[in-house]
Amino acid sequence: MPLIPPETVEQINAANDIVEVIGGYLQLKRAGAVFKANCPFHNERTPSFTVNPQRQIYKCFGCGAGGSVIRFVMNYENLDFVAAARKLAERANIRIEETEMSAEDQARYGMRKRLLALHLDAAEFFHRQLLKVPSAQIAREYLKSRGITAEVARSWKLGYAPDAWEAMAALGQERGYSAAELVASGLVKLRDEDRPDGEFYDRFRARVMFPICNDSGEVIGFSGRVLEKEAQGAKYVNSPETILFSKGAILFGLHKSKRALIEEGSAIVCEGQLDLITAFEAGVRNVVAPQGTAFTEKQARKIKQCCEEVVLCFDADAAGQKAAERSLPALLAAGLAVRVATMPPGEDPDSLIRGQGVEAYAARISAAKDFFDFQLDALAARQDFATPRGRMVAARKMAESISRITDAVLRETVMHRITLRLELSVPEFVKLLKQPAPAHARAEDGGEATAAEPVSLDPTMRLLALVALHDEDARQWILEEPWREFLAPEPGSDLVLKILEYPLRVGDAASSSTLLAGLDEGEGAAVSDLLIARPPVGPQAIAHDCWNELERRKIRRRIEALKARQRAQNLDFETVAKLHEEILALQKRLSDIARPFSPPL
User: Fold this and answer.
1) pLDDT tens for residues 336-362?
2) What whole-number distance in Å separates Cα of residue 272 and Cα of residue 275?
3) Superfamily of domain 6-91
4) pLDDT tens digits, residue range 16-35?
5) Cα gap 535→512, rounded to integer Å
6) Among 84, 223, 398, 569, which is least packed, fewest CB within 10 Å?
7) Distance CA 189, CA 191 (A)
């Protein structure tokens, strides 16, 4: 069961309406008595993710994911149970007093909590440096030259990392953070990686600092931009991978722009933080930026949860074109329509807005071309389509991109448009296409976690669990029987035992959600299926019939065991007779139980 008292978990579930919570993450649409959306846990074009407000549960009929509001937050934000419950408790202003937890869970939860606090302290520290410290004048001048006012800097909590080796390290130690916490945060680096207890120094020095937030607005990392033109090292330095920060799963600015993405139905993807901030502050608010240039499938799915279209707005140079092409596979795999907005030569969104106004930028976005037309135009600038060789080079390149389209109708439409322009026959072009990988076969970074398979129950065990979840009288009748003894040998008994052991209030959504919160993912998916299933007709009769079947199974197992003993060598006559007598009695009982159950009048 949960590490938080069940009554507190039930209070958290009751206070957090699942439609409101999930609606803060996904674009939910009403469909009769339920709400639907594209599932955030696997790629799909047709919504199969359902939220049931009456039952206060969610269920995806595509991948099988399902459970309570706490389970959703756990899976969506990759949190453990305690962290997800705390997040929802804070949302509902509920105080949590935890019971004892395992040392491992306590360590992980404690470290995450400490690192969040450390990142918040670091963001405040860098921000104060930018606003008040004389040595940060170079950073203030740089931001001013990019049109960033003090008000904008405060809104985005921009900062400055001092040109010092131990400023952040000293602050952390002064605030009581351990060396292990400082290193785990990524804010400092070890001088010798082989000596985790050795000296360390600041990762970010003499840089403008951009706090990176998760979808909830918590600071989980930083991106630092160098200020000196001749400075050695990378122009941008990001936080390393930590238990808070995963570069491939985060979109900069999404915590501020999510609502605009939903309202506009599209996401404008900028190449950098300053491009995004300038556009956002100028009134173009449906903007996001990857941490790097190419999209991952996780980032693409985050966008798909909010809207149906992406407009790539990378620089007009060759690097920007390559970034757009690298982003395509993940965006198409997520089922997003992709357009590309081109900037004037030598301009980026930031400079265009500051130089010509937001109207010029908005016009470029409106005129954005479909990705495949954009790619073909780029090829036309390098290849002569009048020659057979030029057409074939372009055809092979376009076939590579079109092969990534998983939607058959879209693929056919784009293919006909491209073959017409290249003056190729459709059969010739089809020969160049590769078959798209099925959605379940696509993976990222060596594999992508999929929803756990629901625990499988045989028909009898499923019916017994169903009536125990839906009918109070049938549930009480089962609990009065020796249910632990009868259920223990059966496949799937662990789950049915948990259903019966939990003090469920049948029909109470918060009580059902608390039961789900105490189950693992596969068990939760199975119970979610049962909770949204149609309540059985004649539940008490069904409970009796299920019980009779379980007793029959028990008797058959006993008979088989006795017959096996009979086959043993060197048994005396008396023992054989007793075994035979017991088998006959059990067979008679088996015959009696086989008679149809008739409920009392």
Assistant:
1) 889 999 888 888 888 999 999 999 999
2) 5
3) Zinc finger, CHC2-typedomain (3.90.580.10)
4) 999 999 998 888 999 988 99
5) 15
6) 569
7) 6
